[in-house]
Amino acid sequence: MITVSTGPLSIDDVVAVARHDEPIRLSDEARAGIAATRQHIDKLAEQQEPVYGVSTGFGALARRHIPHEQRTQLQRSLVRSHAAGSGPEVEREVIRALMLLRLSTLATGRTGVRVEVADTYAAMLNAGITPIVHEYGSLGCSGDLAPLSHCALALMGEGRVRDAQGRAMDAAEALAAADIEPLVLREKEGLALINGTDGMLGQLCLAIVDLRQLAKTADLAVAMSVQGLRGTTGVFEPHLQALRPQPGQAVSAANILALSQQSPLLDAAYEEFKTSHVQDAYSVRCSPQVTGGFRDTIDHAARVAGYELDSAVDNPVVTLDGEVRSNGNFHGAPVAYVLDFLAIVAADVASMSERRTDRFLDPARNRGLNPFLADDPGVDSGHMIAQYTQAAIVSEMKRLANPASADSIPSSAMQEDHVSMGWSAARKLRKAVDGLRRVLAIEILTAARAIDMREQQPSPAVAAVIARLRDDVAGPGVDRFLSPEIEATVQLVADGTLLDVANQVCPMQ
Fold this sequence. Notes:
The chain has 20 helices and nine strands.
């Protein structure tokens, strides 16, 4: 059970609710704070003087004063008009993360909504009701407007949702089935429900968890490749890493070294390597520098996410003394920058992985293995096209590394004349995470085949990983339908199975 209170959620909290359907509760402290702030809004709503967000229009229409009898319609119209998404449906876990983070902001008591609004949001999450949100519609400024509006629309009993079983239906039907009363929004509430960085932040939290797993997976892949290529682990020794005290680099090197310990395969290759090769290629020798920089970038992104999780993002916001103030905290730039940064480093880690895979396939560089690791070269093609698949993914990831946050298209009659494009940065990062997972899986699959073809025992940790892989994917032999073997390996990477096996033998940092 995750408690949503006035303090920040953690990244793990977000993932638990978004991905694993952990139930939530709204704390008594949060409920009291929400109720106290709402009293200020109710008083302001009675004043003759217009207050932005309470008794006025929005954005470029903020100068118009709205009378009492039209304010319910004002909130309803705001949500309906802003629920303007288009394109493919966004993943369930993303929408659940978005909803939880909006609820977390409501719980700070700085948005001015009634307690009923927060309660209804929590009830929808616990019932597994997920509004249908579309790919396009957010510029990452004034918050993730269209995605959040589709969620607010569902709270009103309008629009389309999916129930806990994934069935698409009208929101009113889903709410009725869960015994949830649709909301009738009052002053300030429509705006409070749609004005936040929750969509891009939710995707950042999910990506951080996935990328931390993939950083360890990359270290495992290197440990397998250095053994499969009969290389050396000397470059990973601590005293060499200490000469350049980048923290992530030290962790990656330590993991690779530990995973490669007690390898008869490397012991047998030692003399030949010393006399014939001297050095491994950069894609092997410099892997801690790249994967370590990747780790450090993830840590930086996690710090930014932590600041954002501790924020009350709304406009206008209700200050601690009850004043309603316009602000610019909805601008998604800080989140957008790290989303783009992560896409860049993910592409580089994938690029290096693909280069290691390619070395296995070239008889001029693979140190004694068959061309393309084919059983009968010429008759068989081995893993030739697996590397093509990697190359296609890496090429796509390099395009995804082009920063979305460097762009801006003015909107709202030039009132919103600079936007972050953070939602777009988040969407392309999700594709990059999936791409990196697939590229590393293909390297692991290829390295395992190469090690088996050596007919020499690798390190205990790598031997255990290969043994587990062989439960789902057969070892070397004549050409087979390769796509299912790639997908099986991708799944073993995605669910952490291979990392778990490695960790049981050699715990990783």
